[in-house]
Amino acid sequence: MSATDVIGIERLEALVRGDAPRTDGERARGALLAELRGATLRAPEALRARVAAVEPVRRHVPLRKPSRRLAFVVVPAALALAVAAAIAHGLLGSGGAKTVQHGVADQALSGVRAPKTPVFGVASGSAAAVPATPSLQTQLAPTVGSGTRLQRTEASLQVRVPDVSGLSAATSAATRIATSLGGYAQSVVYRTPAGGGGASYIELRVPAQNVRTAIAKLAALGSLVSQQVSVQDLQHDFAVESAQIAQLRRTAAALAKALRNPALPDAQRILLQIRLAETKRALSQRLHARTGTVTSGTTARISLVLSTEKSIVPVTHHRGKLGRMLHSAVGFLGLEGTIVLYALIVLSPLAAVAALVWGLLRVRRRRDEHRLLTA
Known about the structure:
- It contains 10 helices and 6 strands; from the N terminus they run αααααββαββαβααβα.
- By secondary structure, it is of the alpha+beta class.
- The chain is elongated and about 135 Å long.
């Protein structure tokens, strides 16, 4: 082939794509391309036998294992971060550990200071526990109740008596005190086990205006161990219930007046009768609720525990700032450990499934390579 028959690369690519030849040289090359496309190339049997006899060399691609130095850096760093987070949590959480609780009973002790002894407990709501000594039993009855407002008053007393005979006498005296003040004993549980000692659990109801006198007399039955008083205002509830009752009464009167109209259609009369019945039922419920509110506001509840055994006073461990910080930090570290353990429990099945899938894919890839070599 002469030098004049040489064609450019662009023109050769055009002939491969199927463009029509323009010269004799292009037509010759087109015919050659047609022969190459129609020819079936097959390796000789001897070459195929030699290739099949040669065992394929497996290329082991080494996986880069993480360096041990990296483990020595990552693990201490993670532990240091966890400890730092716990210390920060302890510093932030130990600042608000001191709380002061005040109650109505603390503010209404008739000017008498409580002795410097541990507080036995604080009742829920506006209540406080006041320890006492026998010399102050009659002076520690707080001023509670109001003559102009409805208030729910609840008191709890624990009194220690010397022996079982004193327990029996004190139990009878407590019920007489409630009766003399216009109240009554709702329940009395008297226990004297065979092993000695004994206790009496008494639920008393007295008029609210006599609760101070009742507390003072009940505390004088023995040695006062603890005292709790709770006062909750009910005047707002009474006003709301009274307004609802007045509205329901007006609605019932209007419905009854409408039903007296002789020209009222039957269908509308039935609807008004249904509405009147519902209004009367709601009025009855509101009247019952207001009666309960009035009863709660006019009758005080006193829970009295008489015991011959010495009461167990809970010991409060006062931690310093460092102790509170360490306690909070240790608790936070325990929380972190729990979270890590939970994450391992949750992620371990997923890791096992991922490893199984990776192994199956690797086996399939090896089979495909073997099939390609033996084809």
